Amino acid sequence: MAQLITGVSRTFDEFLLLPNLTRSDCSPATVDLRTPLVRHTTAETPPIELHSPVTSAVMQAVSTPGLAIALARNGGLSFLHHNQPIADQVSAVRQVKAAETDTDDPAPTTRRDGTGGPDGERFPKRLVDVDGRLRVGAGINTHDYRERVPALLQAGADVLCLDSSDGYSDWQAEALTWVKKNYPEIPTGGGNVVDAEAFSFLAEAGADFVKVGVGGGSICITRDQKGIGRGQASAVWDVAAARDAFRERTGAHVPICSDGGLVHDHHLALALAMGADFVMMGRYFARFDQAAGAKLATHEGFVKEYWGEGSNRARNWQRYGQGGRELVFEEGVDGFVPYAGDLAEGLALTLAKLRSTMVSCGSTTLAEFRSNARLTLVSERSFQEGHANVPLREGTAAL
Ligand code: IMP
Question: Does residue 286 lie within any of the structural domains?
Fold first, then answer.
């Protein structure tokens, strides 16, 4: 007989954080947003840490080389998509690895922002490898990894991620085993999963991080089409507990990434408080200049194109194909997101909000935030109470 999982499937909007005591040493300036990207033992320093806990989605509409450069300069990481010939993905990786790390200007004697020449640091949080080159990730699939992985490694990819809408499969375990055996030096993540069993399956198979989330993406219609998925908050909560249990049992910390469904800036804080080591976002990054979609004028302002990897436009059969080369049905839509300008400015604002939340919750590190966070469920009426409840003056920023 089918099993009914106890507990309702919940999403981030149903929760709020309670403020904790803010100690006098706790201020936005002392908040440290570093977080581990890949598996490590509790005794060692994580081999790769993000300086900002954000990654951009393995999607055509999102992770261009230009976006990867901008994001790595600001402490995060992009995963360049694999829905393209190996040679094209290799060339995208090479473009990021060849980029200037600290300036948009090839000969930075005087900076445009006036922060003075080569001694000054324009991007102090930049994420670089041991040779000082920007770090970049790459998506791979369970079909052509034997050819794609060595080519990406040669191009200098720092980390790989098996990209599938449902990662709880023998194919992912086989691919992870193969990569670990042949290229043990390259960290490789797996996913996506939504529960403890699937996390443990991938962690045992060697995944260096595990992505969490099925059906919550803003362009996603997987739940409508297939009836599978789980509210993102419940999924992160459950998988975070499994990660902690795995660490207790084996001494290895396998980071988890909350992927998809982050709509408002404060959802980032909720995902991290509920246990994510870092997040992955598509819609968020698709709004910026550096993303791939065209910028279009509408009566309500500028928008950018944003389409799912399971849409007919992307035709990503490696992620969504049901065994064949063609998409039998779509799992994603093709739409628009409000234009949001330059990535560096937008991300700085989002991270300022995160720091401020952490200060209110009395935490200066993400690990402390996770272990100290106190969350409450919100009723429909208290959800309404939390928004502006007066008519807004024209031009006032509405969220
Ligand atoms: P968003 O940040 O809410 O826009 O979600 C982005 C995430 O949605 C990606 O990282 C993928 O995990 C997932 N995704 C991308 N394309 C599709 C699709 O076509 N259908 C379902 N999920 C998708």
Answer: yes
Cβ-proximal residues to 118 (8 Å cutoff; 6+ apart), any chain: 108, 109
Ligand 1 centre to CA of 262 (Å) is 11
Cα–Cα distance, 346 to 356 (Å, whole number): 16
**How many domains does the chain fold into?**
1
User: For 288-347, how does the pLDDT look when each residue is reduced to its tens digit (9 = 90+)?
Assistant: 999 999 999 999 899 999 999 999 999 888 887 665 567 788 999 999 999 999 999 999
142 lies in a domain? yes
Q: The domain that contains 292 carries what CATH number? A: 3.20.20.70
Kindly give the number of the ligand 1 atom that is closest to the alpha carbon of 263. Answer: 3
Test site for ligand 1: of 165, 166, 327, most ligand atoms within 8 A of the Cβ:
165
Q: With respect to residue 199, please indicate whether it lies within any of the assigned structural domains.
A: yes
Q: How large is the angle between the packed helices 196-204 and 170-182, nearest 10 degrees?
A: 30
Structure confidence by residue, pLDDT tens digits, 238-247: 999 999 999 9
Distance 315 CA to ligand 1 centre (A): 14
Q: In degrees rounded to 5, what are phi and psi of residue 26?
A: -105, 105
- Distance in Å, CA 209 to ligand 1 centroid: 18
392 occurs within a structural domain: no
Tens of pLDDT, residues 196-236: 999 999 999 999 999 999 999 999 999 999 999 999 999 99
In sign, the C-alpha dihedral spanning 363, 70, 277, 19 is positive
Domain that holds residue 204: 23-98+133-383
User: Which residue among 26, 161, 220, 257 is the active-site one?
Assistant: 220
Asked about 220 being catalytic, the answer comes back as: yes
Asked if residue 59 has its Cβ within 6 Å of ligand 1, the reply is yes
pLDDT 10s digits, 24-83: 999 999 999 999 999 999 889 899 999 999 999 999 999 999 999 999 999 999 999 999
**Cβ–Cβ < 8 Å for 39, 33:** no
Record the pTM: 0.95
